[in-house]
Fold this protein.
Amino acid sequence: MFEFRKTNHGGSNVPVIKEYPTSASVVYPLGAAVAFSSGALVLATGTTKPIGITMKAYTAPASGMLNIPIMLLDQTQEYKTTFAADASANTEGTMVTLHTDALQVTATATSGVFRILKKLGTGASGTSVIGRFE
């Protein structure tokens, strides 16, 4: 789960929250990274650059989907999550990819979208990390 930590600029420390349409038959966990595809939200995984983080859990039906609120991302925001794989060899400053659950980051440093700012531990699988989306 991606948890908002803070914004690093002189303005408001509150992310912009907007509602967007969902895709049919997609399960959106609370705190998941999301992107747009065909005009609706999808889970952002791998090297897909997210546009926001879900503010509620929602299971979209096959038809009649509802909009859900997301926190819009910008590069001044810091988020906390966990490593889904052993990232002990990754240094702070490394860009890593998003896990398939859209709730965590991996140790893969090729074409990453999440910059590691601070490891909160060794970087072993399951340990916390603070970073930002770029």
In short: The first strand starts at residue 3 and ends at 7. The mean pLDDT is 95. Residues 3-72 form one domain. The chain has no helices and twelve strands.
